[in-house]
Amino acid sequence: MQESWALLTTLIAVLAISLLFLGMERSRLSAREVAAIAVLATLSAVGRVTTGIVLCLQPTMFLVIITGFVMGTRAGFLVGAITPLVSNFLIGQGPWTPWQMLAWGLTGASAAWLKYLYPRAGERVLIVFCLFWGYLYGWLMNIWFWSVFVHPLTWQSFLVTCVASLGFDSVRALGNGLFCAVLGPGVMKILLRYRRKVHVSWLPHKE
């Protein structure tokens, strides 16, 4: 039964990430947008590999959030989802990778939704958002860990799993907030400048 739940959660993550990638693939991306996503995903993956050993204290999630906030849902999701896929070739691939891709992708996409719902969101709002995702990412990954390694599968055992990861989640959240406070304004200016250069308006097709 435990193995069935583990397989089911992995399949759900794979299906979700596949559907989201399919939806993104159908959208129009200019060559410059693709180049920007590739560069940002590479920087994000490198940041995760080089700093990930320091107790989850890394600039990666902050960069994914800023990307989504400035460049939109597609860029945020793709940079987020590609980051663990690439970095795990060095850190280690496994059944956790689809869950990481889904969680990181949602991190970037949700930052774009924040911009849409709250256009005037400033530095303080982004810092709080980064703090929030430091914990939410941990809770999402706990679903995979809980379904694979914890027995019995109950709400009580899931709560215990979340409490056990609270220390790591707190370090990640504080790191996100710190990187956002220190590097956020500068990185946002760079991405805003680049977005203006790559923005493409598609005219309606005429028969």
TrEMBL record:
<keyword id="KW-1133">Transmembrane helix</keyword>
<feature type="transmembrane region" description="Helical">
    <location>
        <begin position="99"/>
        <end position="118"/>
    </location>
</feature>
<dbReference type="InterPro" id="IPR024529">
    <property type="entry name" value="ECF_trnsprt_substrate-spec"/>
</dbReference>
<keyword id="KW-0812">Transmembrane</keyword>
<dbReference type="Pfam" id="PF12822">
    <property type="entry name" value="ECF_trnsprt"/>
</dbReference>
<feature type="transmembrane region" description="Helical">
    <location>
        <begin position="34"/>
        <end position="55"/>
    </location>
</feature>
<keyword id="KW-0472">Membrane</keyword>
<feature type="transmembrane region" description="Helical">
    <location>
        <begin position="125"/>
        <end position="146"/>
    </location>
</feature>
<feature type="transmembrane region" description="Helical">
    <location>
        <begin position="173"/>
        <end position="192"/>
    </location>
</feature>
<feature type="transmembrane region" description="Helical">
    <location>
        <begin position="5"/>
        <end position="22"/>
    </location>
</feature>
<protein>
    <submittedName>
        <fullName>Membrane protein</fullName>
    </submittedName>
</protein>
<feature type="transmembrane region" description="Helical">
    <location>
        <begin position="62"/>
        <end position="87"/>
    </location>
</feature>
<dbReference type="GO" id="GO:0022857">
    <property type="term" value="F:transmembrane transporter activity"/>
</dbReference>
